[in-house]
Amino acid sequence: MTGPARLDAQMAFLTEACRLKSVTRATTLCDASRPENSAEHSWHLALYALVLGEHAPGDVDIARVIKMLLLHDLVEIDAGDNPIYGQVDHAAVAASEQEAADRIFGLLPADQATDLRALWDEFEAAQTPDAQFAKALDRFQPPNQNLASGGISWLEHDATLDKVETRVGTPIARGAPALWDWVAPRIRAWFAAR
User: Fold this and answer.
1) CA nearest neighbour of 69 among 58, 78, 88, 56
2) Which regions form coiled coils (predicted)?
């Protein structure tokens, strides 16, 4: 695909991606003024990668991590956001997200669709150092926003320390141990003070 048809396909994808701004998440902004949307979350995670990249273990390619983080939640346009502390059918969510990825990345020219979908799939599998660091950042941001906002989404979802440590601690410790070492005492102190 070349010329105007290629640009038409790229613009269709970018126009569709704008819908991510309408997907509301359970986590609030740091100032607790309102819930963040998924586009804000993706941007904030890309900034996290840029600023915190020095804490990535090993040979992590921060440029690839940023690409993954900009793409990782596009499927929420169709599948919606599932709160990290909520009860969900993980198999049903995964199937819904796969269908969404097929549709959304399928809007692009074939070469870009293949490349960007591969980055999304890599993030989802979380088997490479780049994907593990990206996944760690995806789990690192919500507790920090909860700590800044007084734990609003933890309180709204009846999150327990065990649930928080399981849902966010495991992936953070796997992909960014230094970040887990920094945030874990803060999370534990918040729950201990309740």
Assistant:
1) 56
2) none
